[in-house]
């Protein structure tokens, strides 16, 4: 297992969080069951029971089981390549899809959410001076990517007489866990010898730290062209952040690029007991939890119990881009998907009312041999008929005024 994971990591095939995810799946689910078993003794029936019964019995969902499947199959591929096994025992064991295609109703809810978020969220963000942060979220940029943006993430490209403003996504913010100091992970116990997690270790080899790591995007870097009025919001924020760095209380954490973050903790505030804080966190990276709490507070001002998360904004952006007719190439470039997984992503987010999407083409086809009659204005209108607007925001929002 270690050989497969390290090879994938050395080859640059895994983003930082993917490496941690697979490492966790291996330690928590594969090693406790097969850690002491020679690879030659792994059989199809044994592995089929593992994926069909053992993992679901532990409460794992399709997405997590799929990740375990990828890791174990990859390790067995290495064993077969190296001649340790002749036949692959996982042939015929399919991984769960892991992605649930959105229903018409779910897509409709996302479309409605886009309408009221566009109308109200940015107004709330402007009130607290966070327009730049949440404009980027509405484009569909991942939370960790926004929080990891630095001064050089905003660039102007020139080609002849053409100028484009761009957001460059080249890294993301990560909180790297410290290394446990109480021996090796015990696969059977599913814990370290002391029984504590790394965060609770009393004798750690290293402390947790902040870092800018590579993104989930396949290419590692992507650029998003933005309109001029959005560019002005972003560069205004960059200028304000640059000025903030002149404050005597500015206290960034150590690490390459972390003193140039565009989105950080603001000026010191009072403690809950009303006393001034003794330490300044001004200029330090934002924890994802605080970022989420800010979003929840803004949404709560105009929509109670919305159920929306920071990642929901990415879903909304994807859905609206697809609904607007964005090409596959544009979606890959904007959302940072892999070429291999793009079609599955598009299928997941696409409106499943295919008949409605094809209505225009079908209408043209009928007009070729049976043109629609010319109808006098209002001839067929029934003034008593009320036609509902599927795009109308929920009733609870219609009372909101700004």
Give the CATH architecture of the domain at 2-81: Orthogonal Bundle
**Beta strand %:** 5-15%
Q: Name the overall outline.
A: globular
Instruction: Indicate the mean pLDDT.
Output: 82
Strand line-up across the major sheet: 1-2-5
Describe the structure.
The chain is mainly alpha-helical and 402 residues long. Among the domains are: 2-81, Orthogonal Bundle (DNA polymerase, domain 1); 172-213, no CATH class. The protein is 43% helix and 7% strand. The protein has helices at residues 2-10, 16-34, 44-57, 62-81, 104-127, 131-138, 143-147, 228-244, 288-300, 310-323, 328-335, 342-349, 354-357, 359-369, and strands at residues 154-159, 162-169, 172-176, 209-213, 222-226. The strands form two sheets. Strands 1-2-5 form a three-stranded antiparallel β-sheet, covered by helices on one side. A two-stranded antiparallel sheet has the order 3-4. α2 crosses α4. The longest helix is centred in the first third of the chain and has 24 residues, at 104-127. The model is unreliable at 380-402 (pLDDT under 50).
